[in-house]
Specification:
The complex is a heterodimer of chains A (106) and B (119). Chain A contains no helices and eleven strands. Chain A has strands at residues 4-7, 10-13, 19-25, 33-38, 45-49, 53-54, 62-67, 70-75, 84-90, 96-97, 101-105. In chain A, the strands form two sheets. In chain A, strands 2, 4, 5, 6, 9, 10 and 11 form a seven-stranded mixed β-sheet that branches. Chain A has a four-stranded antiparallel β-sheet with strand order 1-3-8-7, with no helix packed on it. Chain A is globular and about 35 Å long. With 119 residues, chain B is mainly beta. Chain B has strands at 3-7, 10-12, 18-25, 34-39, 45-51, 58-60, 68-73, 78-83, 92-99, 106-109, 113-117. In chain B, strands 2, 4, 5, 6, 9, 10 and 11 form a seven-stranded mixed β-sheet that branches. In chain B, strands 1-3-8-7 form a four-stranded antiparallel β-sheet, with no helix packed on it. In chain B, strand 4 (34-39) and strand 5 (45-51) form a beta hairpin. Chain B is globular, with a radius of gyration of 13 Å. Chain B starts with a strand and ends with a strand. In chain B, 39% of the residues are buried. The chains are: A mainly beta (106), B mainly beta (119). Chain A binds chain B through residues 32, 34, 36, 42-46, 49-50, 55, 87, 89, 91, 94-100, and chain B through 44-47, 95, 100, 103-112.
Chain lengths: 106, 119
């Protein structure tokens, strides 16, 4: 299994600011990486796939980057509704999720 | 509307069984592979099972292999998960999720159904 490690575990950012979330793979996964957003009490929602392609309807404020073992999700112009847990998931070797990063906007 | 709606969760005793259903609508069900993903309370996401569009290929996570059975009825646009020999550690929200086929990420999720295994 490819272990996915996300950092930080949690962060707090002010509205209008920028958040940078990291995801590291235990071995290279190329660009076979997705990001999901899960708001409290809701199902996860696909944000990014293929490391940098935004899913349908996702605003340009959400940007994915990286390849190999190091990936980043950058969220700019933060809104209160961006408060959520963000998960990365690789799909290069079977599939596995990171443990999540909790983002708080306040 | 494109959606997945799960049902069938509830409280069950250890060693018991439960059958979850997922009703798909708004898209061509037979064009997609489907999955079950679960999330224990306060924990992260765990993929548990996968089936191709016509059930030709099926996979399970080791944690449920031999106890859970995934199936689908394309005529009814429905996905199922038969869960047997349930354990306390199976307590979780269970989501059905559609994947892209060529790549194993999930572009559509249901809202989930909660399974609680407790005496």
């Amino acid at each position: 299994e490819v272990v996915m490690t996300q950092s930080p575990a949690s962060l707090s950012v002010s509205p209008g600011g920028r958040a940078t979330l990291s995801c590291r793979a235990g071995q290279s996964v190329g660009t076979n990486l997705a990001w999901y957003q899960q708001k409290p009490g809701q199902a996860p929602r696909l944000l990014i796939y293929d490391a940098s392609t935004r899913a349908t309807g996702m605003p340009a404020r959400f940007r994915g980057s990286g390849s190999g073992t190091e990936f980043t999700l950058t969220i700019s112009s933060l809104h209160s509704e961006d408060s959520a847990v963000y998960y990365c998931q690789q799909y290069d070797h079977w599939l596995s999720f990171g443990q999540g990063t909790k983002l708080e906007i306040k | 509307e494109v959606q997945l709606v799960e049902s069938g969760g509830g409280l069950v005793q250890p060693g018991g069984s439960l059958r979850l259903s997922c009703a798909a609508s708004g898209f061509s069900f037979t064009n997609y592979s489907m999955n079950w993903v679960r999330q224990a309370p306060g924990k992260g996401l765990e993929w548990i099972s996968y089936t191709t569009s016509w059930s030709k290929t099926i996979y399970y996570a080791d944690s449920v292999k031999g106890r859970f059975i995934i199936s689908r009825d394309n005529a009814r646009n429905s996905l199922y998960l038969q869960m047997n020999s349930l354990r306390a550690e199976d307590t979780a929200m269970y989501y059905c999720a559609r994947d892209r086929g060529s790549d194993w990420y999930f572009d559509l999720w249901g809202r989930g159904t909660l399974v609680t295994v407790s005496s």
